[in-house]
Amino acid sequence: MCRHLACLGPPEPLGELLVRPPHSLYVQSWAPRRQRHGTVNADGFGVGWYADGDPVPARYRRAGPVWGDESFADLVRVVRSGAFLAAVRDATRAGADGEAAAAPFAYGPWLFSHNGMVAGWPDSLAEQARCLPAEELLALEARCDSALVWALLLHRLRSGDALPQALADTVTEVAAAAPRSRLNLLVTDGTEIAATAWGDSLWYRHEPAGGRTVVASEPYDDAPEWCEAPDRTLLTASRTEVLLTPLKDPEPKEPMA
């Protein structure tokens, strides 16, 4: 269910990480090596990146497979950035909302991607949806599970919660309402990355000498610097450090009388 990657580091062409490596995100769209659910990520793709002096990222998204877009490889060959997030999608429900459902989702300085699925969607999150302000529900880009998870996270961020805490609280809220969900979430604001390992693979590569940190669903090459985050983990990273914090499964809900 999707593959994604976020990077903070020196400015470089996006294609150096997204296309050029032997097991790049581009290749993972049809041949992922560590994907636990699904085999092909052909239901959309996107990349968001930050330009110097502008905190609001640009995005390029499409509904079809990335290998079918003749402009993508050319775009990432020349666009340079020191902070970006990209994803290829395997939809929970095929055909849902097209390009609007492709990550990264965005608001203000934030980019967001979800690798996984919400069990029992959409009924399982009906109560959480009812708790959101009507204007936030009406602003949803798509009607898929990832878009609602993003809305729940964004509500916390707009309320002033720090990104790591907002991400952890969103995951545990959704997991409590929809057990057996897979909630590998990935967020950046261009200065930090926050991610969760919850039901699928999550890897990171920290290069302090070069000032680069990459967080991804799976490695794009076989370099020994890659480390796997344990399941049920919150990862927070900057260009200079990576911190792993265990996450606890939520307490089971009491059965209704």
Automatic annotation (TrEMBL):
EC number(s) reported in the record: 3.5.1.118
Primary enzyme class: hydrolase
Reaction(s) this enzyme catalyzes, per UniProt: gamma-L-glutamyl-hercynylcysteine S-oxide + H2O = S-(hercyn-2-yl)-L-cysteine S-oxide + L-glutamate
PANTHER family: GAMMA-GLUTAMYL-HERCYNYLCYSTEINE SULFOXIDE HYDROLASE (PTHR43187:SF2), GLUTAMINE AMIDOTRANSFERASE DUG3-RELATED (PTHR43187)
Gene3D superfamilies: Glutamine Phosphoribosylpyrophosphate, subunit 1, domain 1
The protein's name: Gamma-glutamyl-hercynylcysteine sulfoxide hydrolase
SUPFAM superfamilies: N-terminal nucleophile aminohydrolases (Ntn hydrolases)
NCBIfam families membership: ergothioneine biosynthesis protein EgtC
Record Pfam families: GATase_4
Organism listed in the record: Streptomyces solicavernae
